[in-house]
From TrEMBL:
PROSITE patterns: BETA_ELIM_LYASE (PS00853)
Enzyme class: lyase
Aromatic amino acid beta-eliminating lyase/threonine aldolase domain sequence ranges: 49-424
One GO process term, biological-process aspect: tyrosine metabolic process
Enzyme Commission number(s): 4.1.99.2
GO-annotated molecular function: tyrosine phenol-lyase activity
Name this polypeptide is given: Tyrosine phenol-lyase
Residues the record lists as N6-(pyridoxal phosphate)lysine modifications: 260
Length: 458
């Protein structure tokens, strides 16, 4: 592993937060009290927090300065105007509706764009996205390329939509029965896998023939743009901004969680070109979020988001961000730890099936692996497998082919030395993987169970 391939941090650290160094006995007690669910741990008990990159970013000096000029007027905030202009400049859509975070945008889109009985094809599900789609009468259909479900395949752009699968769905169900195509850039549950510009263009061409709209889950679109620049022919000399603009030129709109690639702690938005959908979204945002000029966000948060979105387009920033994740992945790969390949843009995904071959999927191996990683090291991660997938309408567990633990790297928070410590902890646990025991539910909520479920050893 050549360290020269990994750029130094393109920033200086001005403020630090002291973290608690706990003992193994303290972590055993904390995990037991949390019901072996890393979401239920207290933050103060965590040493390195890789639960999520959502809202856990470190903001820049310019973003913090922007927070001080927050216009907290209930209507007509100048910060909304700044955010609105920034989003339109970078994404190119005609209309933007702010929301408190990404799932707020998912809620609005699902209500205004899905009729009961319609299908919503997409390149692999995401938990909250599928929930909103199904809650509004839609049926999610996975049309991602088959390679995305195989953790061992190291191929580029595993997030691509399989055009044959999409065409087959159109032929079988009819274009009128497809609400829209939901295209995620990047694909979280596939391991943070990007989508090629070629695929986006081809999806646009196919859907245009049938009058079907395409909405992106744009949460990590800047990371996706980096992969296009790095790996797709014809884009090496284009800026991240230019690539992002072309990406969105093939869509009718998008949902966005600003807590990721906008490098902030809260906020999101919904974009579209359709005038009627925009009017409907403005009506609903008042019901669920707030006025169309703040949508659940404070003025200061909108200002920080506008600044952060511009900062995310800087090549030095996104190169370091993606390659820091890659650094961790390569260290684990060299040690023989089974991970999802290739390494994605926001996280390294441990392949719990191969990590814990002594456990069946019904034993919740990824859930147990995440719990044991915290106990052994103080590193908090997240299950992304059968628990996250939930149950179908008949009450049966969805059993995804990928059973993973996500090591999610916050933006501008940790150093390469932190990644070394995480790698050492995972490698040591892998050497003693037989100690990882299966789990069962002690409490199972009906919806999005992975957030609040509690477990116990079988």
């Amino acid at each position: 592993m050549d360290i020269k391939n990994y750029p130094a941090e393109p920033f200086r650290i001005k403020v630090v937060e002291t973290v608690k160094m706990s003992t193994r006995e303290e972590r055993v007690k904390a995990m037991r009290e949390a019901g072996y669910n890393t979401f239920l741990l207290n933050s103060e008990d965590v040493y390195i927090d890789l639960l999520t990159d959502s809202g856990t970013n470190a903001m820049s000096d310019k973003q913090w300065a922007g927070m001080m000029i927050g216009d907290e007027a209930y209507a007509g905030s100048k910060n909304f105007k700044h955010l609105d202009a920034t989003v339109k400049e970078l994404f190119g859509f005609k209309h933007m509706v702010p929301t408190h975070q990404g799932r707020g945008a998912e809620n609005l889109l699902s209500q205004i764009a899905i009729k009961p009985g319609q299908y919503v094809p997409g390149n692999m599900y995401f938990t909250t996205t599928r929930y909103h789609q199904e809650r509004n009468g839609g049926t999610f259909v996975d049309i991602i390329r088959d390679e995305a479900h195989d953790a061992t395949l190291d191929v580029a752009f595993k997030g691509d939509i399989d055009l044959n699968k999409l065409q087959k769905l159109i032929d079988e169900q009819g274009a009128d029965n497809i609400a829209y195509v939901c295209l995620a850039v990047t694909v979280n549950l596939a391991g943070g896998q990007p989508v090629s510009m070629k695929n986006m263009r081809e999806v646009r061409e196919l859907t245009a023939k049938h009058g079907i709209k395409v909405f992106y889950d744009a949460t990590r679109c800047v990371e996706n743009a980096f992969y296009i620049k790095e790996q797709e022919e014809g884009f090496a000399d284009k800026s991240i901004k230019e690539i992002v603009q072309e990406m969105f030129s093939y869509a009718d709109g998008c949902t966005m969680s600003g807590k990721k690639d906008c490098i902030v702690n809260i906020g999101g938005f919904l974009c579209m070109n359709d005038e009627q959908l925009f009017e409907e979204a403005k009506e609903l945002v008042v019901v669920y979020e707030g006025m169309p000029s703040y949508g659940g966000m404070a003025g200061r948060d909108m200002e920080a988001m506008a600044i952060g979105l511009k900062e995310s387009m800087q090549y030095e920033y996104i190169e370091h961000r993606v390659k820091q994740v890659r650094y961790l992945g390569e260290k684990l790969k060299e040690a023989g730890v089974p991970i999802v390949q290739p390494v994605g843009g926001h996280a390294v995904f441990l392949d719990a099936r191969r990590f814990c071959p002594h456990l069946k999927q019904e034993d919740f191996p990824a859930q147990s692996l995440a719990a044991n990683l915290f106990i052994e090291s103080g590193v908090r991660s997240m299950e992304r497998g059968i628990v996250s997938a939930g149950r179908d309408k008949n009450g049966n567990n969805h059993a995804p082919k990928l059973e993973t633990v996500r090591l999610t790297i916050p933006r501008r928070v940790y150093t390469y030395r932190h990644m070394d410590l995480v790698a050492d902890a995972v490698i040591e646990l892998y050497k003693n993987k037989e100690q990882i025991k299966g789990l069962k539910f002690a409490y199972e909520p009906k919806q999005l169970r992975f957030f609040t479920a509690r477990f116990e050893h079988k």
